[in-house]
Design brief:
Elements lengths: L4 H7 L3 E2 L5 E2 L3 H10 L2 E4 L3 E7 L3 H6 L15 E6 L5 E10 L2 E7 H13 L7 E4 L8 E4 L1 H10 L9 E4 L2 E5 L5 E4 L6 H6 L4 E3 L1 H11 L35 H9 L5 E8 L8 E2 L10 E10 L2 E9 H4 L14 E3 L9
Parallel strand pairs: 3-13
Antiparallel strand pairs: 1-2, 3-9, 4-7, 4-8, 5-6, 6-7, 9-12, 10-11, 11-12, 14-17, 14-18, 15-16, 16-17
Helix pairs in contact: 2-7
């Protein structure tokens, strides 16, 4: 981990856990702070792919579900990348800087996605680069104290997905509050943020922000499990139904216009931990899985909150962690409505 983040980690007694991820003490206090306090997180669960070259926009337009022409120096966008069968291989947050496109995605699939994109470049004037982790640290921050630093450094924008740039430094306003920060290698911002009275939180604790926002990142455990609409990707602007072709486009369009979608993403509360990718069950359709966990975070002792993708017909009939219907999920509200509601 490069300076000055290392000084910040040492100051807050950060440790590398068994999975190689940065962690801090008192996880539940971190989660509480993400929801209601001043926080700073290094998001080591995410990586960045840079797509450069004069054909970059055209190339990405033919690969991703969102309209890449809407991405600009002042506007970021969510998008997805699917198989020919419409199943998501990845989800991204995309922004533009100096005519290059930057794709933020789950770290556990980043290398494979970069390799796959490179395979389809062919004769296009495009270069796909997975940026090295030691040289890249994406931070998340939330709360009035760290945001005051951004206000003094940028002309701060609060509209979701607004992009602020100063030199090589990038900040992006997130839906439901908070900012992503992608500082340049020589940026003064990390040093400025070290002096802020903010709780140091892990990427695992920061995850509750995305769960509250109803945004489930595609990870290795959920690759090729969902058509974009199953994860409410069209609700957060990750799918355009007016652009041209891309892998899986026919399936995505058919799902949108022909009949009601059978599975949707919901928010739920659990009393038992279940890993991302764990199957879910309902007495409405016995002896078969009706969905899976898409994201999860502990919020209290014996209490977790999660995003789940399940068959809509089962949602009101009861969803359980086991086929024996022992641990039930409790419905929680998402911050947006889907077309089915």
């Amino acid at each position: 981990m490069k300076q000055p983040w290392q000084s910040w980690v040492d100051k807050n007694q950060g440790q590398i856990d068994q999975e190689g991820r940065l962690s801090f003490s008192d996880f539940l206090a971190q989660v509480t702070a993400v929801r209601s306090g001043n926080v700073l997180a290094l998001l080591d669960n995410l990586r960045i792919i840079r797509v450069a070259g004069e054909d970059a926009q055209t190339f990405l337009q033919g690969q991703f579900s969102a309209d890449i022409r809407d991405v600009s120096a002042t506007r970021a966008q969510f998008s997805t990348y699917s198989t020919a069968k419409g199943r998501m291989l990845a989800s991204f947050l995309i922004w533009q800087h100096e005519d290059n496109y930057y794709l933020l995605l789950s770290a556990d699939i980043a290398a494979a996605i970069a390799k796959r994109l490179t395979m389809f470049v062919m004769r296009s004037k495009v270069k796909v680069t997975l940026l090295d982790t030691p040289e890249v640290q994406v931070a998340g921050l939330r709360g009035s104290a760290p945001e005051q630093v951004l206000q003094a450094y940028f002309t701060l924008q609060r509209q979701p997905l607004a992009v602020m740039q100063r030199g090589g430094d990038i900040a992006i306003a997130l839906p439901e509050g908070g900012y992503l920060l992608y500082p340049a290698l020589d940026s003064p911002l990390p040093a400025l943020l070290q002096d802020v009275d903010a709780v140091a939180v892990s990427a695992a604790a920061w995850a509750i922000r995305d769960i509250d926002a109803g945004i489930a990142w595609v990870t290795l455990a959920t690759q090729e499990q969902f058509v974009p609409q199953m994860a409410n990707m069209e609700v957060i602007g990750a799918v355009s139904f007016k652009k041209g072709c891309y892998p899986g486009q026919e399936i995505v369009a058919r799902t949108q216009y022909l009949g009601k979608l059978k599975r949707r993403l919901y928010k739920a509360s659990l009393t038992q931990f279940a890993a991302v990718g764990s199957k879910l069950f309902s007495p409405e359709l016995p002896e078969q899985s009706i969905g899976m966990i898409a994201a999860i975070c502990q919020v209290a002792e014996c209490r977790y909150e999660a995003l789940v993708v399940v068959q809509s017909a089962c949602w009101d009939k009861g969803i359980y962690l086991e086929a024996e219907y022992i641990n039930a999920l409790e419905a929680l509200a998402l911050p947006y409505l889907t077309q089915d509601e």
